[in-house]
Write a structure and sequence with these properties.
5 helices; Immunoglobulin-like; transmembrane; alpha+beta; 23 strands; 3 domains; eight-stranded antiparallel β-sheet; transmembrane helix; ten-stranded antiparallel β-sheet
């Protein structure tokens, strides 16, 4: 046993005295350095996959940002279908310029759309101070060009929920072909003083949209001495505008001299494209040296345009008539005709020193200037009472009401100075 122990101890001493050659250490180190392990290959593959995913996300987001950078954001509720489609096509010009007023209100011109009919401005009004009457923050605007100014036509906006922001879409006259830079002048009433801000911007003429239909009409329709002329129709990607006039300046002068002056109230017409009615947008009337001029605005025409018609229906006017009708307190159902319109006097009553005259007309006839002459004295109309409507078998609607005059006497004369009524035209004009 001792011999075995001694032998083992001798072998241990021999092993402890073994020296590892330096060459072997270097060979082993180099071998390990060049060795590729499966775990490292797995980590490297993961890194490549992650890099590919990141590249895809960056590319996708870049395309998305590029798409949305061409669109006006936040105006979906203020755009009709036509404007939404144009916005989706990137037809708006992004501006993104702001002006801050002394009361802390921020005005931002987000963008514009331009065609031959109008310039549409899209803007945001923001009040982060909370110190202003937000509802009253309604700035007025105009555009200053090289030689002239372009004024607001119409617009609409909305308050964004409970927030401190409003967004607006405002229509202006289209800028002239030579305009390259415009200045949006913004005016805001602050503590009783008008403060002005200005936002300059360049027009991108590549974004300007051309007309889709432009045609001269030049047709005149005469009805009971009223001349109504349709001058032209002008369709663009954002709207369709019909222009015309009612009485030229000479005819207006003759009407005034003869005591039969007219004032147009409402023009009714329809625009039909491909057999379908085009949505109405609005219109305007104005009087200048050329007479009474009007515009009627409709939505844009369809792209696959096959036919266009204008249906001229009626014109409501207020006209000086200056008629006197002798009345008797015992009269019943007296029929009076003025300018082709029937006025039925149903009854005349005296109650407590006042006179009440009940009469009926079709619903669009209104006596806008009426007096009662009692024993030679002109009495103003105090009020109109008991307004009732009754539809007849032929489709007409009769309007029955009672005029109250705060006086009574023996002799009565009804003075009708002015009245409103509709002139029917029912004309169809084929444009295309």
């Amino acid at each position: 046993m001792r011999d075995i122990d001694k032998l083992l101890m001798d072998k241990k001493e021999d092993l402890d005295n073994i020296v590892v050659p330096k060459e072997l250490e270097e060979r082993l180190s180099n071998a390990l350095k060049d060795k590729e392990f499966p775990k490292k290959r797995f980590i490297k593959a993961n890194r490549i996959i992650v890099a590919c995913i990141l590249m895809f996300l960056i590319t996708f987001n870049f395309n998305t940002l590029a798409y949305y950078s061409k669109k006006l954001i936040g105006y979906d509720q203020l755009m009709n279908t036509t404007l939404k489609n144009l916005n989706d096509l990137g037809m708006g010009q992004i501006i993104g310029e702001s002006h801050t007023f002394s009361n802390g209100v921020l005005f931002t011109l987000d963008g514009i759309m331009i065609d031959d009919n109008q310039l549409l401005a899209f803007y945001t009004v923001t009040d982060n101070t909370g110190e202003n009457d937000f509802i009253s923050l309604d700035p007025s605007l105009n555009l200053k060009g090289l030689y002239k100014r372009y004024f607001m036509r119409s617009g609409h906006g909305e308050i964004l929920g409970e927030s401190n922001q409003t967004k607006w879409v405002m229509s202006f006259d289209p800028p002239a072909f030579y305009e390259r830079t415009l200045y949006l002048n913004v005016y805001m009433n602050i503590d009783g003083m008008m403060e002005e801000g200005e936002i300059p911007f360049k027009l991108d003429r590549n974004k300007a949209m051309k007309s889709t239909l432009k045609q001269v009409i030049n047709k005149t329709f005469k009805n009971d001495g009223v001349n109504l002329k349709l001058s032209s129709i002008h369709a663009s990607p954002t709207s369709t505008v019909i222009e015309g006039s009612i009485q030229n300046i000479l005819q207006l002068a003759i009407d005034k001299i003869s005591g039969e002056r007219i004032r147009p109230n409402k023009l009714e017409m329809k625009l039909i494209a491909n057999g379908e009615e085009v949505e109405k947008r609005g219109g305007s009337m104005s009087t200048d040296i050329n007479g009474i001029r009007f515009t009627k605005e409709f939505d844009a025409l369809p792209s696959n345009l096959e036919s266009v018609q204008i249906h001229l229906e009626s014109l409501s006017i207020d006209k000086d008539v200056n008629k006197f009708i002798e009345l008797n307190k015992d009269d019943r159902e007296i029929n009076i005709e003025i300018e082709g319109q029937n006025i039925l006097i149903d009854e005349i009553k005296e109650i407590n020193g006042s006179t009440y005259i009940t009469f009926s007309t079709v619903e669009d006839v209104v006596l806008t200037g009426v007096y009662l002459i009692i024993d030679g004295e002109k009495i103003n109309l105090k009020e109109t009472l008991n307004s009732e409507y009754d539809k007849l078998y032929d489709g007409r609607v009769m309007h029955r009401r009672t005029m109250h005059f705060n006086s009574s006497g023996l002799n009565y004369q009804l003075s009708i100075e002015r009245m409103s009524f509709s002139e029917k035209y029912n004309e169809v004009i084929d444009v295309k």
